[in-house]
């Protein structure tokens, strides 16, 4: 029974799957499990639950047993389904029914890596965009043709249903959820405590083996680091290519291969992230936030926020400055 101190907290439930890989099971427990009410009094309250009557086998010859059963999903605000063993795992109908009921009740449902197959089996990914580990993308398409599978992003947020790519991308999605719920400052604080990057750029394209056996050069990281320090300046593709010692054409191709997007889209994402950080952590005027993030004027910043986040800088600041305190 919840105590008064737990009232108002976001209730997270993690179903433990048979033969579950331990890393993807540990990720939501590590991100949402520790009591971090110093970041927000609404911080997550995590419960793991059984999906069958017996202790579940896990990777490495271990067994995992949770104290609660699937009834825990009835109180969840967020359900995080960890990875499952592919291609052998078949989710029990009781789990699929509980996931459908939680989603219909209004809970958000997230899947880590191959956990997307569980959501797909429940019908929660029908006619939605979803991602999974790039090695399993074709199998997900084959089994569930109504799912719009995209193996390129590290994660996809459809609002009430979220999916992540493989293994370490589970961390990216969980930190994204923290960022969405409590703001970038809180997500950055969690990442510092866990000694991980608060946000990784690009998508799975940088990890999928190329069709050619020729190894691609791995020299873009210094250019990206330099660009992040220059966001207040107008940057061109030519400047970035020159910094990388490449022609514009070679740089654009190499960037798409290693980062998974175009240089312009990457820069715009960096500038938006900088603007959000400044709004959350400083009292700078909207004009100065626009200038320091490289998004131009206050009017331009408002237009960009409306287009990308469906809100205004002032509303965003009021929301996330309050939640981060």
UniProtKB/TrEMBL annotation:
Keywords, alphabetical: Transcription, Transcription regulation
Taxonomically, the superkingdom here is Bacteria
Q: Which residues form the HTH araC/xylS-type domain?
A: 221-319
Instruction: Write down the Pfam families for this protein, in alphabetical order.
Output: DJ-1_PfpI, HTH_18
Q: What is this protein called?
A: Helix-turn-helix domain-containing protein
- Please report the organism this UniProt entry assigns to the protein: Saccharopolyspora oryzae
């Amino acid at each position: 029974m919840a105590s008064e101190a737990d009232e108002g907290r976001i209730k997270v439930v993690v179903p433990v799957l048979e033969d579950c890989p331990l890393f993807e099971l540990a990720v939501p427990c590590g991100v949402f499990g520790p009591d971090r009410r110093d970041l927000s009094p609404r911080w997550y309250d995590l419960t793991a639950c059984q999906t069958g009557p017996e202790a579940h086998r896990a990777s490495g010859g271990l067994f995992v047993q949770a104290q609660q059963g699937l009834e825990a999903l009835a109180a969840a605000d967020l359900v995080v389904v960890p990875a499952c063993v592919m291609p052998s795992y078949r989710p029990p109908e009781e789990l699929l029914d509980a996931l459908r009921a939680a989603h219909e009740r209004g809970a958000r449902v997230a899947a880590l890596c191959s956990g997307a197959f569980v959501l797909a089996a429940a019908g929660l990914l029908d006619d939605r965009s979803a991602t999974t580990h790039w090695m399993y993308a074709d199998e997900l398409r084959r089994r569930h043709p109504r799912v719009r599978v995209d193996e390129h992003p590290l994660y996809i947020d459809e609002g009430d249903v979220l999916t992540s790519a493989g293994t370490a991308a589970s961390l990216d999605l969980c930190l994204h959820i923290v960022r969405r719920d409590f703001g970038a400052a809180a997500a950055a604080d969690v990442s510092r405590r866990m000694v991980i990057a608060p946000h990784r750029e690009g998508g799975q394209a940088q990890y999928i083996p190329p069709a050619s056996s020729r190894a691609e050069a791995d020299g873009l990281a210094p250019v990206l680091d330099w660009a992040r320090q220059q966001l207040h300046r107008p940057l061109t593709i030519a400047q970035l290519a020159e910094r990388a010692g490449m022609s514009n054409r070679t740089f654009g191709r190499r960037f798409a291969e290693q980062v998974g997007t175009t240089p312009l889209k990457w820069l715009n994402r960096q500038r938006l992230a900088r603007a959000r950080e400044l709004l959350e952590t400083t009292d700078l005027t909207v004009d100065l936030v626009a200038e320091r993030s490289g998004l131009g004027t206050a009017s331009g910043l408002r237009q960009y926020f409306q287009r990308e986040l469906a809100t205004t800088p002032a509303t965003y600041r009021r929301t996330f400055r309050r939640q981060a305190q």
